[in-house]
Amino acid sequence: MHATLPLLKESDFPAINRGRLDTLQVNLGYLCNQSCLHCHVNAGPNRKEIMTEETVDTVLEYLATQKVGTLDLTGGAPEMNPHFRHLVRESRALGVRVIDRCNLTILEEEGYEWLAEFLAENSVEVVASLPCYLSDNVDAQRGNGVFESSVRALKRLNDLGYGVESSGLTLTLVYNPQGATLPPSQMELEAAYKRELHLRYGIVFNQLFTITNMPIQRFGSTLVSHGKFDSYMQLLKESYREDNLPGVMCKNLISIDWQGFVSDCDFNQMLDLPMREEGGKRTHLSDLMKVDITGRPIVVMDHCYGCTAGQGSSCGGALDE
């Protein structure tokens, strides 16, 4: 796989500093039942990196100590971590809002028959990847049969109340472009998703997030292989909007890797750009138990243009909608 960090280092992206922390995004490991083309984590079935119970307990201690309001669980497939249920239950007991970034097909994997009901019972918000409402486009990006499996999973979530008005169970879908383009209008695409998924399959959901593909890891390597890396970076830079800066997710979020080390965002984590203490030591979550990180500088490089291009992009979707 082509390394993209050397292509991103020489950057004129503006300096930004942290605001008040409200979200702890935790990567529970790179193990996944899928290997998607756009995956910036390079996750897959053969990855061995998994967060231990000790580190999970450090996460819970931090949530309680710092009174963080939201826990955002990612992977890989975060549900494949053996301590997933423990982390969710204890976080909910603290009154923390929990988000599960789910690839949907995990709901149909052998050994995960419990998952859908568990998420509903604990009022976990589901943010689910579905790059299109057409089967051919989804299978091209995520593998044969993924679309049909995803539709079955969505129907199962709907049956439990997810996406149903006034149920209290939030179901969000996530769109990534098929290639080296910016996402279309989130508002317009959401309307199309809601119309087509309901007409074709009777599926309902609450909202759609559009997320820009980042020029790192698997997607970045693919761009390099096809000779499109430079043109994609040019697109991101030409589409830069300064008014997106105040809303970028790194201002109010920190990203924790499977070993407990801290980065300013999930993308920096994947580029091995951790938050560092004075002297250059990588910051571990245990180092921040009683530390206010408000105002600290954020590590930026050229990939940050992906979050500020066009309508903007974050783990919460477009920034201007």
Fold and architecture overview:
This protein has an eight-stranded mixed β-sheet with strand order 6-5-4-3-2-1-7-8. It has 321 residues and is an alpha/beta fold. It starts with a helix and ends in a 13-residue tail after the last helix. The protein contains eleven helices and eight strands. It has helices spanning 5-8, 53-66, 84-93, 115-121, 135-142, 146-159, 186-201, 217-225, 229-238, 266-270, 305-308; strands spanning 23-27, 70-74, 97-102, 125-129, 171-175, 207-210, 253-256, 262-263. The mean pLDDT is 92. The chain has a single domain (20-214, 249-296), classed as TIM Barrel.
The biggest sheet amounts to: 8 strands, mixed
Secondary structure tally: strands:
8
Q: What global shape is seen?
A: globular
In the CATH hierarchy, what is the architecture at level 2? Alpha-Beta Barrel
